[in-house]
Amino acid sequence: MKKIVGNFGLALLSACAILFFSTAAFARIDVGVIGSMTSGLALLGQRQINSAILAAEEWNAKGGINGEKTKLAIEDSGKSTTQAMTALDRVLAENVCAILGPIYSFQLFAMFPEINKEGVPLLSTSGTRKLTQMGNRWYFRLYPHDGITKRAYTLFAVEELGCTRPALMCVTTEYGKSGYKIIMDVLKSKGIKPVAVTWHEKSDKDMTGQLERIRRAHPSCIISQAHPPDTAQIIRQQYELGINIPHIASSAASMPTVHKLVGKYMEGVYVEAAAIPNYDPDPKIQAWTKKYVKKFRTRPDSFALLYYDTANFLFNAIKAVGPDRKKIRDWLEKNSYKGLAGRYKFDKEHNGAFFAIIVQYHMKNGKAIPTVVKKYDFTPE
Amino acid sequence: MIQEIVSGLSIGCIYAMTGFGFVLIYNAVGAVNFAYGEIVMFGGYFGYLAIQSFGWSLGLAFLFSILAMAGLGIFNDYFAYFPMRHRPVVTVIIASIGLSILLRNSALAIWGPDPVKIKSFVGDQLVHIGNVVFPLHQLLIFIVTAFIFVGQVFFFSRTSIGRKLEATAQDQEMAKLMGIKVNRMILLTFVLAACLASIAGFLLAPLWFLEPDVGLYIIVKAFIAIVIGGFGSVYGLMAGGLFLGVTEVLVASHLTSEYKDVISFLILVTVLIVLPQGFFGEKVAEKV
User: Fold this and answer.
1) pTM value?
2) How far is CA A160 from CA A152, A153, A259, A269, in A?
3) Cβ of B212 under 8 Å from any chain A Cβ?
4) How far apart are CA B181 and CA B288, in angstroms?
5) Mutate which of A36, A79, A212, A216 to test chain B, going by most B C-beta atoms within 10 A?
6) B228-238 average pLDDT score
7) How far apart are CA B225 and CA B15, in angstroms?
8) Distance between CA atoms of B158 and A105, rounded to whole angstroms?
9) SS3 content of chain A, % helix, strand, coil (to 5)
């Protein structure tokens, strides 16, 4: 009898041990990652997903978050709201504790009702101003929104370059329209009215019409608000058409891809950005960029760097309060984080980054090299 | 104004260049090939592949692209047309849409989402004539388009193969009775169209860049140009392309840049209502 009881006890102990270790082995924290991996929008999306992967691998290599490994549920939001919603549904089916979202505002807007209903924190690096003006407590932005960056580059054009006759070139997407409004507000506050305003589709391949309209208005500078391919067209054609006035471009012009397309025409172009990972002298950023290039064989852009910071901010939140959606949200609202690109602290609207830089590009040995010409910090007191 | 017209003509030439192969296939099989934009895109991408991956010169890359595109033309015929040739036209059109999606996503998988460009055969010099400035590459576009246009007219009207193709386009059954090997003629058409796409791809890549979505953009514009000019007509295509290119630039410059594409589609709708057969009518009316 004793033997039977002893054997039973041993078996029970073994079962408990197996159960304990297997639970520990399979315990994990599920985090959703949604970004454009296909279509032309993958230009920004894939680099951001890379950043999330890098951050998660680093945490896992150090033993995970509180001993639990992080598993990323990565889904493709393609180029439409439909694909973004499908991606969201798939990620939510994995019972994730938070989501690192896409950069594109039209996809984020579509996700908001579901995010509110499910009560899951959604973090992204989109710049569109309106995103944080909709009272969504579950959404967090970790990129200086257009209200910061557009204000910075418009102020730079007016105050530093003395541009009193600006011409605006904007893309017809939500990003372009949101930026246009902010630029106009800043110009109005300075008592300036643009001498010409032109619009173009994101897919437009020729800007001659828009640039000729601008030429006739005799502006003293061009301020553009566009996506990468159209930004490249604008800069190249401005030079080709001989419109020799300063060009202050939106952050798309800081992307290495745009430099490859524009080539020598990047000389002298001013660009607003949140960070310049490929040329920042900070050793930590240099080391990160090197690691990123080695792993993904592509150069990161400013969005990728800030997405990496975003992922780390989120993992710190999970470390502090566990994988509880509401607790993560509350922790993010109250705490700050010092990332590679800067310091993040959310205001009431859930905007977390308030820094912006203006760089000017010069051609050196066939490469467009940026130099920081002005730094802006609009962090609320 | 002259500056705008010159740029508009250049854009129109690219639309026309895209349309040449499109019309060729339409005339041969009686169905629109919506994959043709992506085929043009691949013409450029094959050149980019040869330059970037193999380190070949622009000339060799162009030859490589022509050969690779001939292969793609055969693929197009055997996989997206030949198995469906006895089915309703709409089946062939849907197959072409499927091929377009396949090619677009293949380009994304192979070359990624980043736009890329290939250098022009004439470099990036600018030409100054009075107050008008344009890249030398635009001059190349004018010359090549004119050459292809004349060549295509000559090919169909003066050569034996051209006439066989024309006969195949007009009535396949009758062509068979006349001893023409119809399937071979159609295969030749797909190969020729793909080679023309290679030229178009090389012409647009230095100015418009290559990206997985560029094919969709150009096929929509080329399609409008074809409808405006008259379905199936090479003259109409040329006229429609130039008209559309110049109109787009003038509208963006003098009327509205925000709604210039809306104006293009309004023109398309107006032409369809007022002049359903386009500027130059249609040679094979029963294929509408």
Assistant:
1) 0.75
2) 11, 10, 24, 14
3) yes
4) 25
5) A212
6) 82
7) 7
8) 57
9) 50, 20, 30
Out of B135, B211, B252, closest to residue A240 by CB: B135
Count contacts between A and B (CB, < 8 Å).
98
Q: Tokens 């193999």, residue?
A: B54
Domains belonging to chain B, first-starting first, are 2-274 (1.10.3470)
C-alpha to C-alpha distance for B283 and B260, rounded to whole angstroms: 31
Contacts of A200 in chain B (CB under 8 A): 252, 257
B126/A240 Cβ within 8 A: yes
Q: In this predicted structure, what is the pLDDT of residue B179?
A: 83
Q: Write down the ipTM of this complex.
A: 0.83
Q: Which distant-in-sequence residues (6+ apart) come within 8 Å of A282 by Cβ?
A: A340
Average pLDDT, chain B: 86
Q: 3-state SS of A265-316?
A: HHCCCEEEECCCCCCCCCHHHHHHHHHHHHHHCCCCCHHHHHHHHHHHHHHH
* Contact call for A40 and B7, based on CB within 8 A: no
- Which contacts qualify for B146-154: CB closer than 8 Å, 24 or more apart? B148/B17, B148/B20, B148/B196, B148/B199, B149/B16, B149/B20, B149/B234, B149/B238, B152/B20, B152/B24, B152/B234, B153/B234, B153/B235
Give per-residue pLDDT as tens, B5-37: 988 998 899 999 888 888 888 877 777 888 999
Whether B250 and chain A come into contact, CB under 8 Å, resolves to yes
According to DSSP, the β-strands at A367-377 and A355-364 are antiparallel
Residue A42: Cβ within 10 Å count: 23
pLDDT band at B288 (very low <50, low <70, confident <90, very high): very low
Domains by residue range for chain A, with CATH: 25-144+282-350 (3.40.50.2300), 147-273+357-377 (3.40.50.2300)
The segments of chain A whose pLDDT lies below 50 read: 19-25
